[in-house]
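>> received
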Amino acid sequence: MWNCDWEYQNQDIMKKNYDRQLSGQYKPVAPIRKIICEGCGCVFYTRIWSKKYCYYKKCGKIGYKKQLIQRRLAQPPRTQVCKMCGSTFTPKRSDAVYCSNACRQRVYRQSVTDKASGYDDHLHEP
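>> returned
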């Protein structure tokens, strides 16, 4: 059994030892910390100094998704200029170049007709 699994299953023992540690009756090798889980928000006790979640298998993904949302909200939305129509837009993807599917399709059709018009020269005989 991993240490983190034991801690998750024995939170009542960890809480008693934490209270004894605060009163000075208990001197552990690794100090016990009282932490709020970044995934579910519950209070838990641990000896692992880098631990952020009460149980990683349960709260790890939840906490990671919360961090991603916070990072995205912290960044101001970037604006870009459409290469077809010249309007400014907020791209939904990092590699977006055009403001809409209509502009993207218009550019594609122009490139296809430009290429096709170059091939017609050899068909016309003088």
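>> DSSP finds four helices and four strands in the chain.
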